[in-house]
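Extended Data, panel c. Modelled sequence:
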Amino acid sequence: MHNAIAIIPARSGSKRIKNKNIRQFHGKPIIAYSIELALKSGFFERVIVSTDSPEIADIARSYGAEVPFLRTEKNADDFATIYDVINEVHDRLDIIYTYTCCLFATAPLLQLESLSQAVSLLSNTKVDCVFTITPYKYPIQRALKISDEKVEMIQSEHLKTRSQDLMSTYHDAGMMYFYKTEKYLKEKSVFKMISKPIVLPESMVQDIDDEDDWKMAEIKYQNLHEKC
């Protein structure tokens, strides 16, 4: 792929898992997996980490990524969006690459195959953006809520609907967004673009928000690489 860049957002100050982006995961900082995958792929002219932390910057550089500047304070707080972070990188580089891949720092389960699939779709179709998703394990149409200490269905009309008759639903796998840069900067959302998903099984996806998630990610990583 010509004229493509990878950006890995990795700010400090994780609330639920201390130093999450650089915590040791199977022997090395978890961010190293995203950096190494991007470099190994050969798809990118530059692999840049966006961070507000000198410590994260040093670790990122030690694994081969660039950190040409530290993130501004404005885009390092709890309210900054991914769009804000990505837009800041493009602004400060003074060059708009044709393609951008936003790789998450905590995505050790992401495989080269998924990156290659995204490249093929972006290069050979009219798709503007490709990102990873995974099916909900249980039908969300049967989700429950607690109201006045009573359990109720949110969509009670589906109480007796067979599972196989319910629409399949998915959620973002939290691994990557690979897109045409100018289109994304204009629309500011992948849902306003022509986006296509890469559907991954639950065994290859793990959002990491707490200690239980972290342990599950380690188990899935080990299982995945034992099969390889």
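The mean pLDDT is 94. This feature is highlighted in the accompanying rendering.
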